Amino acid sequence: MTVLKTSLRNFFAHKGRMALSAVAVLLSVAFVCGTLVFTDTMNTTFDKLFATTAPDVTVAPKGARNDETPQNGRPASLSAATLEQVTKADGVKSAEGAVVSSSVTVVDGDNKNMGSTNGAPTIAGNWTKNDLRSMEITSGHAPRGPTEMMVDADTADKHDLELGDELRTISVAGDFTARIVGIATFKVTNPGAAIVFFDTPTAQRELLGSTGRFTQINVTAASGVSDTALKQNVSRALDGTYKLQTQKENADENREDVGEFMNVIKYAMLGFAGIAFLVGVFLIINTFSMLVAQRTREIGLMRAIGSSRRQVNRSVLVEALLLGVVGSILGVGAGVGIAIGLMKLMSMTGMNLSTDDLTVRMTTPVAGLVLGIVVTVLAAYLPARRAGKVSPMAALRDAGTPADGRAGWVRGLVGLVLTGAGAFALYAAATADRAADGALMLGAGVVLSLIGFVVIGPLLAGGVVRVISAVLLRALGPVGRMAERNALRNPRRTGATGAALMIGLALVACLSVVGSSMVASATSELDKSVGADFIVQGNQRIVPQAEKAMQQSEGLAHVTRYRELEATLTSPDGRTDDTGVTAADPTYAQDLRRPTTAGTLADAYGKDAMSVGSDYAKKHGVHVGDTVTVAFKGGKTAKLRVAAITDDDAAFDQGARYISTATMEKYLPAGLVPPSSIMFAKAKDGQEEQAYAALKESMERYPQYQVRDQTDYKEELKDQMGQLLNMVYGLLALAIIVAVLGVVNTLALSVVERTREIGLMRAIGLSRRQLRRMIRMESVVIALFGALLGLGLGMGWGATAQRLLALEGLNVLEIPWPTIIGVFIGSAFVGLFAALIPAFRAGRMNVLNAIATE
């Protein structure tokens, strides 16, 4: 009880000093809880949607998956005869055929895409009774003929669509126009997909290219018949092999598909929260170390009157426990607010998430509380242990916490060993022959070098701070020298404060180097390898009518079709793989200049010929002239002669196996030939600008595809990488904010620790302005120390990662010096900002009271 009372008294006596540490715990816990609540809410939204839309039993073609479209772009389908068989099965109350396709694009009269802007699909189909489970018609009526359609209310609101508006639907089977006659509203939250409905004959004809067929059959059970029993009855009634699922199985499959994507988001965000926690550890260690140092005499008196080491240790840990509890409780509440904010942000991008589905599972606050409290208590353990070593004699003199010179040497030795081991691991990663092996060594090198720099930080502080001070502070005269001495006074404290900032900036530098190198490598490869003037591609395969429009565009010397085919290859050694082949027109050899290690690529486009990549050839012992057996999915099996082996040391089409379009058509039925996934074009000599303008005009009717020349493509690569890096930097900002709080807290506590010293300096003539400048310069030096270590470490990580990327054909190392220099200069401003409040408080000190302070 005495320990608790002492801890409570100390905690509330230093509540101002604890506040910033509590904020660090709050932010870290809030990010963890916010991530969990946000992802759980998204899962709840999808679960409700899938459970509502799934019928009692679904019958679909064998092997069909809800998230996949066959290679020919047309959904796999069932015959009307199958529907009749299902209807006659025991326990069936009703069965209806449904047509569903996500390989469509819907545009208005101005060729503006009516689909989602957040990556969600556009789904077209026929209006069925099963749709009434999740939607209701709130305006107009269901489509009744080939020129009528219905849209969902969210899409109508987003694009200002009304009854009577005409929309054009683009599918593999062709384009057709229909007028909106109805608007249907979801009874549950629609996460963002655009939905359009037609009558059944129109959906069959325009989406499947054939009447009397369905993509699935929705079966409703008779009263008293379970879904499992109904599934068994339907299976017995069918005379073929089909994919049958109960409502739960259907919902589970959809949930699994979405869950993979959600897990990527979830664990990525939790990873950044973990970085923030790691940075917060340094803040907490520094806070308690300084509080213990400032209470040395008090702790010594406690020991003198009978308190044991264990009681002193426990007193500090109880303070940490209180800090963890307060920060974690507030963090859990803030996490719910963060989740709601993320939901609003996603709604702005087109993904609808309702707060009605806000999901706070019991495990979320428990995880936040446990994580925040445990991390805080563990971070305070070393300062608490140090406090327990304070001797009773410390009460009789002005002493700090006990210094252990041997411990300093041990720390330095351990830091050097860890840093050396990290450097060796990074070297091993950079010289690895396989990317998989190198990735493991890179991970080990990053962890070991980071820990090594953290441990060795106090030793580095002396030399690095002196160098920075020689450049920045010496010119400021006595004030600059005092700022330098203050930063050097406690290397351990300076090292820990700088390390907190180092972690975030090391990751920023690493990712900047990797991102810039990837763009520079791809750009270099584009200049070296791509001979095509124009590239056309989109999120969907290129429909035949768009392909035809491109081929008819004026000013083009040739157009190349590029198709990805599902196939199983059997090499001469008898081993198989199902990674498929690529079918292209012979002009592709001009559009992408792939060097070969054997043979000539043009020969691979000959009759019954193909090429393989050098990695495949090495793995299977394949040489030019050998025969590879290729079993085309849905087609025939061919024995193709290897006419060329392409060099896989390339950024584009690495590992691709090429055949000609003619070879594909020989062994694959016309109905299974897939649309092109990408197309290339070459302009006639001297007509590049005219051909570019004509091509963009020809493809204007198909906004789902982008027409780019090489300059556009390079800019697109830069923009995509820039957007990705900006998102990562935004997540890393949390760790940097926590690091800034650490600098603020360190300076604030340092000012309190030096109260008497500051009073004496003021008494002998130091002005308030000079005092504030001294503290600001001390903060700048600490921030630049952390930045210098972080940026140097991050560039080393990035350069190593680039060597691994070189194994995948990305051979250019580019250091983004503007970003690195900008971050370094920005760190100085971070230091200035962090010192504003401590410097202001120091300047307001009463000189006499400060001198009288013990």
From TrEMBL:
Query: Which InterPro entries does this chain map to?
Result: ABC3_permease_C (IPR003838), MacB_PCD (IPR025857), Macrolide_Exporter_MacB (IPR050250)
Localization, per the record, is: Cell membrane
Membrane topology label: Multi-pass membrane protein
Domain (MacB-like periplasmic core): give its ranges.
19-235, 497-696
Q: Where are the transmembrane segments?
A: 267-293, 316-342, 362-384, 409-430, 442-473, 494-514, 727-752, 779-799, 819-840
Q: Tell me the ranges covered by the ABC3 transporter permease C-terminal domain, including all copies.
A: 272-392, 731-846
The record, for Pfam families, names: FtsX (PF02687), MacB_PCD (PF12704)
Which superkingdom does the taxonomy of this entry point to? Answer: Bacteria
Keyword list (alphabetical) reads: Cell membrane, Membrane, Transmembrane, Transmembrane helix
Coiled-coil blocks? none
The answer, when asked if Nucleus is one of the entry's keywords, is no
**According to its UniProt record, which protein family does this protein belong to?**
Belongs to the ABC-4 integral membrane protein family.
Q: What's the protein called, per UniProt?
A: ABC transporter permease
List the source organism: Streptomyces bullii
